[in-house]
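User: Here's a structure from my thesis project, written as structure tokens. My advisor, Dr. K., wants to see whether a designed sequence matches the one we expressed. Can you design one independently, without my sequence as a hint?
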């Protein structure tokens, strides 16, 4: 066998491996997402919508203490409106948070797959791993995501009513009938 034949066989095998790796990356990064749930013109793309819905349902499952799931409570629509209102720099950071959390299970487990491909139980385990991670950045990423999705969940009137929240248009204004009047502090006299 000549060197040319061996070299060609090695190059062919290497090319096959490279094509396989690139194909796997394309599949994992870009393929297999459901069609968008929100109407055309939404700020969140199909991948972000799938991630937000999966994460909302992992944090707020149907049949939990409050029977509405995250998606049933409208968290996806809330997050789309929230991201739309952000300045471009903050919008980019939120999108990076979604992207990071979507692909974090590759590294952190519980399975080597993106977040939206995990089972409901594995999604909960993945978020729990982030919440309890010794790595500060992972804990902050989890807290940021949980805070935004919780605000979206609590924005639903049924959810808010279920926990006894009462909407107040001006929460920092005094209500004369319920709050006692507090006199201003006395000023010391200067002699």
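Assistant: Designed independently from the structure alone:
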């Amino acid at each position: 066998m000549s060197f040319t034949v061996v070299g060609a066989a090695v190059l062919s095998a290497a090319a096959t491996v490279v094509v396989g790796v690139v194909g796997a990356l394309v599949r994992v990064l870009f393929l297999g997402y459901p069609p968008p749930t929100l109407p055309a013109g939404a700020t969140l793309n199909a991948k972000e919508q799938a991630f937000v819905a999966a994460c909302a349902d992992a944090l707020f499952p149907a049949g939990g203490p409050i029977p509405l799931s995250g998606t049933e409570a409208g968290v996806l629509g809330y997050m789309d409106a929230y991201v739309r209102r952000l300045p471009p720099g903050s919008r980019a950071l939120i999108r990076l948070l979604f992207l990071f959390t979507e692909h974090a299970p590759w590294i952190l487990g519980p399975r080597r797959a993106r977040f939206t491909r995990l089972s409901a139980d594995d999604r909960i385990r993945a978020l729990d791993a982030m919440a309890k991670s010794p790595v500060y950045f992972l804990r902050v990423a989890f807290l940021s995501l949980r805070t935004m999705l919780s605000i979206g969940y609590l924005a639903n009137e049924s959810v808010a009513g279920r926990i006894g929240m009462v909407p107040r248009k001006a929460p920092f204004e005094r209500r004369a009938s319920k709050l006692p009047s507090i006199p201003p502090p006395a000023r010391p006299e200067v002699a």
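When you compare it with your expressed construct, this may help: The longest helix spans residues 3-30.
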